[in-house]
Structures are given as structure tokens and as C-alpha cells.
Amino acid sequence: MTGISGFQCAGIVGGGQMGAGIAQVCATNGLKTILVDINPKQIETAKSGIAGSLEKLASKGIITTEQKSIALGNITYASDLNSLKDCDIVVEAIIENERIKTELFQSLDKITKQSCILASNTSSIPITRLAAATSRPDKFIGMHFMNPVPLMKLVEVIPGIATSEDTTKRILDLSIGLGKETSRSADYPGFVVNRILMPMINEAFNALMEGVASAEDIDKGMKLGTNQPMGPLTLADFIGLDTCYAILKVLHEGMGDPRYAPSPLLAKYVEAGWYGRKSKRGVYKY
Ligand code: CAA
């Protein structure tokens, strides 16, 4: 099995949890996949994370052992962006910093072939603004995967104002080929998922700050009371409190509406370096 809807080779930039997950899903579904990270340690972490995840999925019968081997064979790792020159699509999944993302896309614009679609996995930075830094805003799009990528069904597809309908259609088709469901969103702050999810998480922090209930009771109330897999505070620790805080700031600034102002308690946790699971301390201790 090679290729999906005219795409043969995918480049992923950023070997963190999201980038590794996206690379895994691309490779499992038949794309030649190149995962690039400038940090060799991050590449090693991504490699073992992907191997572990594929092993788990195979042991549960979610993928076959043959699919696991195909996936492993489809991925190569690199530290140099030039290795992406023949890719049909490059998905960026680096740190949520607009300046660094913009510089990366300017480099990718020079390196990749003209037909290559450039996609960002950003959770909230405007797609139109990132696209404007390239010479191909018509071939630029938001492709927002959910964490953990191998398990979560959704890809939010966000065309910028200049994205062509052809690019949007190709990315919707590609996402389906990756075994995902899609939802399309216009390019407004937080798109759809984070615009609705983050205010819920923020409200949970405000309820905790005001002493309405303990963290455990807030999570239990929402988990069992509204049938969510995780309560909002557990989910915030899972996503990363620094990420939640950054997204709320983008919503607050982008919408100019005080209802999106980050909870002072969330801000305090982030200032303390309590980022959630990844730092072993967030709302809960790990
Ligand atoms: N690959 C393979 N297996 C994985 C995995 C991965 N990447 N991540 C977790 N698993 C496995 C676990 O190891 C576990 O395996 P075992 O059953 O063998 O122990 C299994 O999946 C199920 O996990 P758990 O039993 O721990 O818990 P669960 O049944 O609740 O499922 C979950 C885990 C899918 C994460 C579920 O809790 C869930 O859906 N949580 C909500 C996640 C969510 O909302 N994500 C979106 C966040 S928002 C976002 O990503 C966008 C943004 O911009 C912030």
C-alpha cells in the first residue's frame, strides 16, 4: 500500500508528542514519512515512542503486525530540513511560537517543491498569518490533530483566507486516508475545538480557585455528569497547562472579549513551572 490521494511522501517537522503521532499515522497508512527534528535526543524519544505505540496497537489487534512493520519501514528520521525537498506535504508540529513557526515556513517555502502543500498543526495561531509569510498561501492550510494522535479520530481542517479550495479538498481527502474524521473550521481564534474546550477548562480552574469544589470533585462531576473520558482538570494536565494558557491568551487577544481571560490560578500554576503530566506536577502530582 503506497500513497494516499496523490500524496506519496509526507514530511513532519517536530518530534514531540504531536509530531511523532502524526508521523506514525502517516507511515501506518502508507506514506513515505520523514520526521525532522533539530534535536537528536528528541528524535530518539520520538523513535521509541512510535515503536512503543505501534507495539501496543498491534498487541491489541487494532493494527496487524504486518501494518506495524510497514509503518516502521515507512519512517525515516532526519535533522536537516533539506531532506524534505521531495515531499508532497509537510506538516509542521513545532513549539507554539509564531516567530519560530514563521521562520520555519519561510525555510520550507524555499526548500520544498512548488506543488508541496504546507500545513501547520497549530492549535491557535492564525493560519492566514503563517501562510502570508510564504510564496504559496494558496497551498497553505491548518491541519489540527488531537492528542494522542494515533487514538483520536479528529483532524480539524482550517483553510486560511487565501487557501485554494483544491488544497482544502486534498487535505480533507488525505485526512480520511489517514483513517481520521474531519471537521472544517474557518480561521478564527482557537478554530472550533479550542474555542469551546478551553473556556470549559478555564472555568474548571476558576471553580477550583473560588473553592467551589476540590479538583477531584470538579473532574468527577464533569466526567460522570457529562460522559467525558477525562475531567477538565485531568485533561488540562494531559494537554499541558502551558499550552492551555497560551491558547487562552490567543483567544483573549484575538477576540478582545474578557470571558476568555486565563484564570489567575492557571497562570499561577504555569508561572510555578507546573505544566501538567510532562513536568510531573500540574493540578495533580504524577
Ligand atoms: N498509542 C497507543 N496506545 C496508546 C496511546 C498511543 N499514543 N496513548 C494511550 N494509549 C493506550 C494506553 O496505553 C492504554 O493502554 P492499556 O489499555 O493497554 O493500558 C489505552 O490507550 C487506553 O488508555 P487509558 O486506559 O489510560 O485511558 P482511556 O481509556 O481513558 O483512553 C484516552 C485514553 C484516549 C487518552 C482517553 O482518556 C481520552 O480520549 N481522553 C481525552 C483526550 C482528548 O480530549 N484529547 C484532545 C485534547 S485537545 C487537543 O489535543 C487539541 C489541542 O490543541 C489542545
Q: What is the chain-wise order of helices and strands?
A: EHEHHEEHEHEEHEHHHHH
- What is the SS-derived class? alpha/beta
- What's the CATH architecture of the largest domain? 3-Layer(aba) Sandwich
Under CATH, the homologous superfamily of the largest domain reads: NAD(P)-binding Rossmann-like Domain
Fraction of residues in β-strands: 5-15%
CATH topology of the largest domain: Rossmann fold
Characterization of this structure:
By secondary structure, this protein is an alpha/beta fold. The protein folds into 2 domains: 9-184, Rossmann fold; 194-279, N-(1-d-carboxylethyl)-l-norvaline Dehydrogenase, domain 2. The chain is built from 11 helices and 8 strands. The chain has helices spanning 17-28, 40-59, 65-74, 98-111, 127-132, 165-177, 193-209, 215-225, 232-239, 241-255, 264-271; strands at residues 9-13, 32-36, 75-78, 89-92, 117-120, 140-145, 154-159, 181-184. Bound molecules: acetoacetyl-coenzyme A (CAA). Acetoacetyl-coenzyme A (CAA) is lined by residues 53, 56-57, 123, 146-148, 150-152, 193-194, 197, 229-230, 235, 239, 243.
